[in-house]
Amino acid sequence: MxxxxxxxxxxxxxxxxxxxxxxxxxxxLGMGGQNIGRCPMALTHEIIRQRIGGLTVVGCNLSIAMxxxxxxxxxxxxxxxxxxxxxxxxxxxxxxxxxAGSLEIEDYSHLAMVTRFLAxxxxxxxxxxxxxxxxxxxxxxxxxxxxxRPGKALVIDxxxxxxxxxxxxxxxxxxxxxxxxxxxxxxxxxxxxxxxxHEPEMVRASTHVIASCEELxxxxxxxxxxxxxxxxxxxxxxxxVQPFGAYPTSTxxxxxxxxxxxxxxxxxARAGVEAVTEYLQASxxxxxxxxxxxxxxxGREKLETLRQTMLAMV
Length: 314
Fold this sequence. Notes:
Blueprint: H1 15-22, E1 28-31, H2 41-50, E2 55-58, E3 61-62, H3 64-71, E4 75-80, E5 82-83, H4 92-100, E6 104-107, H5 110-122, E7 126-129, E8 148-149, E9 153-158, E10 161-170, E11 176-184, E12 190-191, H6 199-205, E13 208-216, H7 219-224, E14 238-241, H8 259-271, H9 273-285, H10 290-297, H11 300-313
Parallel strand pairs: 1-2, 1-11, 2-4, 3-5, 4-6, 11-13, 13-14
Antiparallel strand pairs: 7-10, 8-9, 9-10, 11-12
């Protein structure tokens, strides 16, 4: 752990300031969220708006946020478990970049990615796992070094049980990670409800963390329910208050995903570079900020409907 804020610092700032301070060109960017849930869209839009490029994006299932960064031409490499938007299909810009050879990709399983973040947060160079064994994600036996692939994974015999294979995966420490959470206080204590997947390990492994939140709560409320704090303040660099900050993906207990808007993006992404550029111009570069995007893409009535739909399910 390094580079995080002090105990009493007020870390609330605008998305524009947080991204300008902590996201550098060429950075390794940890991506929170999963599939069509709690993707950090407001922070992603700000990176696109500031056109910060040369990024390596890392996470488990890299979804619509990653795909929009790729569509904006800001990503050179991804390391992940998968790329898709569940029933809405694959991440088309990502797939097109891989097929064209313009985007580097390193495949791992979801568990292997979490294991790499775990090694990063513990400060060790690698971590053993049984994930990847028996899969095509490991080097082929006919490769020059059949049990070694420097930089990705290494298969060794268990030192305490010869003949038993164990995979070693390298530690992963993002320069900065972006996540969207339900609640936070000004110090940076984060409350995540519902799934959290790889985010706790990724956050603790990162040099800097920018967290957008649906709701800013008092530190007294955080202290009154310490068992609800998913990530303590010492791992967080900036807090951005942004209701509907995961739109068009969902946030558990706050709002459902917007199927029409996800489908609209997928149609543009599938159509090609020109259509994606038009989508980003209309949604990001041509807007005054994420609130302006929300008003244009959804509007107050639609957002309220998404909120009521979620409340009816929880």
